[in-house]
Write a structure and sequence with these properties.
- A 5-stranded parallel β-sheet has the order 7-8-9-6-10, with helices on both faces. A 3-stranded mixed β-sheet has the order 2-3-4.
- Helix 4 packs parallel to helix 5, helix 15 runs antiparallel to helix 17 and helix 18 packs across helix 19.
- By secondary structure, it is an alpha/beta fold.
- It starts with a strand and ends with a helix.
- A hairpin with a 3-residue loop joins strand 2 and strand 3.
- It has 4 domains: 80 residues, GMP Synthetase, Chain A, domain 3, CATH 3.30.300.180; 148 residues, Rossmann fold (3-Layer(aba) Sandwich); 64 residues, Helicase, Ruva Protein, domain 3 (Orthogonal Bundle); 91 residues, DnaA protein, C-terminal DNA-binding domain (Chromosomal Replication Initiator Protein Dnaa, Chain: A, Orthogonal Bundle).
- Bound molecules: adenosine-5'-diphosphate and magnesium ion.
- Magnesium ion (MG) binds next to helix 5.
């Protein structure tokens, strides 16, 4: 007799699949089509998924069926065939009461990597000032894993390309060397697998699995810090150490730089800080247009420039939301079979808006922060002294003031003890030049910027 699973069990199954689905089909498609879907039936082999409309059904069928089915198969530890059906008014639809299925508790028990999203490659990653450093370091890591930048730590706000970059490294490693074992996993899945392995007395297998990888890509590591479970953090730390000490590459993505992670283990934090830390920032409007253009092309759509520009101007601070808006426009085109007008697009995406909060860092914030980080008294930084221990932090602060605020040279000069604009420009140029040639300066500036903008 097959066991039965309640409708809440089906909903739970779907909920536990969503994080992995988001990783493997991409967050934009997941947010647009999968989050609102529901499991209508599951007999242990075939799973019937209810989706919102025909476009979602066709889109998912055409592009993501293998990924969805492989995520679900991994979750229930047996092959799952996925079928889709349009469900009209989902919210009011009664859920079926019970259906037959094999597993009673649909929680992930399989260990291992989520398949990489084939779209998250370096080729599909638009490089611009907001991500140049992280991209270059990522490429370097993928060429010589474990040898150059280890660990490599990427951080940014949500939707700015961490997962994409992490997976691009994974693709490139495999391309250069198909024999290397690459594992991509979100910290959340890692913890779920750990909990499952403790429950099933399989911790030894769990450890073996993770301690045998060549390149370990861990996404959203802030999760480890947030759950405050000593066991998870310890297990993570041990896995990290084992890999690190045997010169295996570890790449970590997080929503905050290492020193802002609420970790209990100080050694873990300092190890994370020891490698190279790179951030991803909001792309400017030209970059956003380039990203949309690339995305539209990869979907086989040729959208007029004014429409791309409109979307790019409207959505500033999150590339995932930007793509969500594009998908919505694509959906409209496929339903009506004609190019939408600009006003139709305006209407269509009127509820999207993520205009970035105005950059709140001031010249004073920068000077105070740099003085503190570089151990230079603020009064000296703003005063007349000209010895090198003072001049260098001052130049760094000046550079950051030009980069991060809209103040004129004269304004910055006024703040820095009434220096004239040519002195300010000289300081700025000095740092800019060193940035080109001196890696330590690059790291320093990168780190200070992240700290100021976090
Ligand atoms: P995060 O992990 O930081 O939340 P993601 O990696 O999921 O962000 O990126 C969100 C979406 O934006 C993805 O679909 C990704 O392909 C796209 N994206 C981010 N950065 C770029 C870029 N530089 N070029 C092209 N697409 C990008
Ligand atoms: Mg991500």
């Amino acid at each position: 007799m097959p066991e039965t699973i309640s409708s809440s069990g089906l909903a739970q199954l779907w909920q536990s699949a969503l994080p992995q689905l988001a990783e493997s089909v991409g967050h934009a498609a997941c947010d647009s089509f999968l989050r609102s879907a529901q499991v209508l039936e599951f007999d242990g082999e075939t799973l019937l998924l209810g989706v919102a409309n025909e476009f979602a059904r066709d889109w998912l069928r055409e592009k993501h069926l293998p990924a969805i089915s492989s995520c679900l198969s991994e979750l229930v530890e047996k092959p799952v065939r996925v079928e889709m059906q349009v469900v009209e008014h989902q919210a009011n639809q009664p859920m079926p009461q019970t259906v037959h299925t094999a597993p009673a508790t649909p929680v992930a028990t399989g260990f291992g990597s989520v398949p990489l999203n084939p779209k998250y490659t370096f080729e599909n990653f638009v490089v611009a000032d907001c991500n140049r450093f992280a991209h270059a370091a990522g490429q370097q890591v993928s060429k010589s894993p474990g040898k150059s930048y280890n660990p490599f730590f990427i951080h940014s706000k949500v939707g700015l390309g961490k997962t994409h970059l992490l997976q691009a490294i994974g693709h490139a490693v495999v391309e250069h060397n198909p024999n290397l074992q690459v594992v991509y996993i979100s910290a959340e899945s890692f913890v779920n697998q750990l909990i499952g392995s403790i429950r099933d007395n399989r911790t030894a297998q769990f450890r073996r699995r993770y301690r045998n990888v060549d390149v370990w890509l861990v996404d959203d590591v802030q999760f480890i810090a947030a759950i405050k479970g000593p066991a998870s953090e310890e297990e993570f730390f041990h896995t990290f150490n084992t890999l690190y000490e045997t010169n295996k590459q570890v790449v970590i993505a997080s929503d905050a730089p290492p020193r802002h992670l609420q970790l209990m283990n100080d050694r873990l934090r300092s190890r994370l800080e020891m490698g190279i830390v790179a951030d991803l920032r909001c792309p400017d409007v030209e970059t956003r247009i380039a990203i949309l253009d690339k995305k539209a092309q990869s979907e086989g759509l040729d959208l007029p420039r004014e429409i791309l520009t409109y979307i790019a101007e409207k959505i500033e601070s999150n590339i995932r939301v930007l793509e969500g808006a594009l998908l919505k426009v694509c959906a409209q085109i496929s339903l009506t079979n004609e190019q939408p007008t600009l006003s139709a697009v305006e209407e269509l995406i009127s509820d999207y808006s993520t205009a970035a909060a105005p950059r709140s860092v001031s010249v004073r914030d920068i000077a105070e922060y740099v003085a503190d980080q570089m151990d230079c008294p603020l009064e000296d930084m703003l005063g007349p002294k000209r010895n090198q221990e003072i001049v260098w932090p001052r130049q760094v602060a000046i550079y950051l003031c030009r980069e991060l605020t809209n103040n004129s040279l004269a304004n910055i000069g006024d703040f820095f003890g009434g220096r004239d604009h040519s002195t300010i420009l000289h300081g700025y140029n000095k740092v800019s030049e060193l940035l080109e040639t001196d890696e330590e300066v690059l790291w320093l500036i990168n780190d200070l910027k992240s700290g100021l903008q976090a």
